[in-house]
Amino acid sequence: NSTTLFCELCQKRAYLECTGCHVTFYCDEDHQQADWVGIHERICQLLIPIRTQTLSQTGRSEILYKKLITICKSEAERKIAEGKHQEALPAAQFFLRCSTDVNGPSAVQLVPAYLLLAEANTGLGDLVSAMEFLSQAEWVVLKSPDCGHEILHRLHRSQGRLHTALGYLESARKHFANDIYHASEEYGADSIISCEGYFLLASVFVKEGKMPVVRSLYSQIAQTWHSHLTKLLKSHVENVQNPDQVEVDKTLTAILEFVQCDVIADLAQVVLVAHSLSMLWFLRGDSVKVSSVTEVVKSGQRSQRVTLKTFVLKHTALILLLLAYFYGFIYL
Ligand SMILES: [Zn+2]
Ligand SMILES: [Zn+2]
Question: Which of 106, 112, 166, 187 is most buried (CB neighbours < 10 A)?
């Protein structure tokens, strides 16, 4: 044919055709397989009307693009949350392509796609590519003065993550502080989204060995999660409907490990965090994990009681003396 075909993934010359849609092409079987697992399986049939241009009304193409964008975005987010960074790339790339087709090359709507691409590359250890995508996102944001807090919070969070990975701890801290500011403006200071920002900031302080700051941040995070989960439990929500639920697990488990090994033993804090984890796993219906952490809660509460008992035993003489004094005082 006179038209040269290009690979869906790498834009090199293509020799294979998808037998499902006949409108998508690949340079080799590896790229076909990677795209199929990554996103194509979900969107194969949706591409036919878009690429054969059989759409009768322009309105229909808008609806189709919206559908494609939603699918690619959620697929990339899910795969990143599950730690499948390589598989997330085709979905994130196609998300960027569709957003560019719909909104143009410098629209603020492209930022979420750039951030997902940066996050997937950070996960893969390709920090150079991650940096490129983040600077493209930053450039778009700079050109959009009316950019909202939500986008700014997400941009600073991604930049903070990258700078942490690069070991630029001071600028990582600045980005996370900005992330927390914008997240608090958008969702409130006590929201679990701002809370995740506090956890990321704390992780920088852990690297710097500033334990008093870590301790106070962790205590604030534990408190926020505890009241959030208590509310969820009260409203009988069956599942924790939060896209970051893998992160919550990591956050609370890291804090539990920290407070259990901390030189300043804070049993009340151990019980609070373990109780939060037991509520989280209960809400997810994971009874095995619940029973494992319930033991921690119970033994913590036991030792809290034991602490009270030993206090009473140690100070029996003093208490008796006080009682005697009071009785004596009354009788006088
Ligand atoms: Zn290719
Ligand atoms: Zn196909």
Answer: 112
Which ligand minimizes its atom distance to the CA of 26? Answer: 1
State the distance from the centre of ligand 1 to the C-alpha of 29, rounded, in angstroms: 9
CA distance 63 to 206: 47
Torsion of CA 235, 238, 243, 247, to 10 degrees: 90
Query: What does each of the 332 residues of the chain score in pLDDT, given as a tens digit?
Result: 557 899 999 999 999 999 999 999 999 999 999 999 999 999 999 898 888 876 555 666 788 899 999 999 999 999 999 999 999 999 999 999 999 989 988 899 999 999 999 999 999 999 999 999 999 999 999 988 888 999 999 999 999 999 999 999 999 999 999 999 999 999 998 899 999 999 999 999 999 999 999 999 999 999 999 998 888 887 765 555 554 566 788 889 999 999 988 888 788 888 889 888 888 888 777 777 877 777 777 777 777 666 656 655 655 655 565 555 555 554 54
Q: Which ligand is nearest to the CA of 45?
A: 2
What separation in Å is there between the alpha carbon of 81 and the centre of ligand 1? 26
**CA separation for the pair 1, 153 (Å, rounded):** 48
- For residue 196, the CA-to-ligand 1 centroid distance in Å is 37
DSSP of 41-99: HHHHHHHHHHHHT--SSHHHHHHHHHHHHHHHHHHHHHHHHTT-HHHHHHHHHHHHHHH
Which ligand has its closest atom nearest to the C-alpha of 16?
1
Centroid of ligand 2 to alpha carbon of 45 (angstroms): 6
Q: Are 115 and 141 in contact (CB under 8 A)?
A: no
User: The whole model's pTM is what?
Assistant: 0.73
The three-state secondary structure class of 244 is: coil
Q: How many CA atoms lie within 13 A of 57 on its CB side?
A: 4
Please give the distance, rounded to the nearest whole angstrom, from the Cα atom of residue 110 to the centre of ligand 1: 23
Nearest-ligand number for the alpha carbon of 14: 1
Residue 1 Cα to ligand 2 middle (Å): 20
